[in-house]
Amino acid sequence: MLDRIGRTGLVLAFVAATAAACGETGPTQPGGSGADLEALTGSAGTLGVEGLTSQVSGVGQQWASAPGGETQPALRRFTINAQKQADGSVTGHHNIVTASGLHIEGVVTCLNVVGDRAFIGGTFRNAQPAPPFTAVGVALEVVDGGSGPAAVDQISPFGIFAAELGATEADVQAFCDDAIPGPVSPIDLGSINVN
C-alpha cells in the first residue's frame, strides 16, 4: 500500500494529468445558480437509530485555482452523502465536478469520522470526459465548521487513485482507516455536516 506522502503525490499527479487531458483552457463555468446547490443529499436517519454510527452529508461549491495557471478561478462543485452502520458497512454516494471540468460520480465504500473531520473513500463509477487513466478509487476529506454565521466548512482536493501508479482499492480503504489530516480549504457556498 502507498504511504500518505505517496498517496498525496499520486493524487496531485493525476489531478494535473486530468486537467491537461481535459483540454481546459479556462475556468469551468458554473452550471447554474446557487439555488441548484440547495438540493438535499439525503440522510439515512438519526445517529444511534437502527445502528447508524456516523454520517456525512454536504453540498456546495468552491472557487479553486484554474488549471493551466489561468488568472481566473475555476468553480468546483460537490455533493456527498455517506453513512456508516454499527456493523462497519458503509453506504452513500459522491458527485464531484473538479476545477478542470472532470465530472465524477461514485459509490462511497469507506467512511471514518474523527471529531468534526471525515475521511471518505469510494468508487470511480462514472466520469465525463473519460480520464486517461484507470481509476481504482477516490478520496476526500471534509471538515464540519459548525453552525452559525461564523461557521466555515472545509474540503480537501479530490484524490484519485490510479492503477497505472500501483494504487489498489486497499489504498482507498487505508486513506479512511489512517485518518491522517491533510490540506483542506473553505467552501464558498453550501454546507457540510459531519455526525
Which whole number gives the mean pLDDT?
A: 77
Radius of gyration: 16 Å
The largest sheet is: 11 strands, antiparallel
How many structural domains in the coordinates? 1
Number of helices: 2
Low-confidence stretches: 1-45
Class of secondary structure makeup = mainly beta
Q: How much helix, percentage-wise, in residues? A: 10-25%
Q: What is the count of β-strands? A: 11
Tell me the β content: 35-45%
SSE series: HEEEEEEEEEHEE
The shape, in one word, is globular
Alpha carbon gap, first and last residue: 29 Å
Concise account of the structure shown:
The chain is mainly β.
Per-chain topology:
Layout: H1 4-21, E1 52-64, E2 74-85, E3 90-97, E4 103-114, E5 117-122, E6 126-128, E7 135-143, E8 154-155, E9 159-162, H2 169-178, E10 185-186, E11 189-194
Antiparallel strand pairs: 1-2, 1-11, 2-3, 3-4, 4-5, 4-6, 5-7, 7-8, 7-9, 8-10
Note down, in words, how this protein is organized.
The chain is mainly beta. It has one domain (4-22, 52-62, 74-194). Helices cover 14% and strands 39% of the residues. The protein contains two helices and eleven strands; from the N terminus they run H-E-E-E-E-E-E-E-E-E-H-E-E. Strands 1, 2, 3, 4, 5, 6, 7, 8, 9, 10 and 11 form an eleven-stranded antiparallel sheet that branches. The protein is globular, with a radius of gyration of 16 Å.
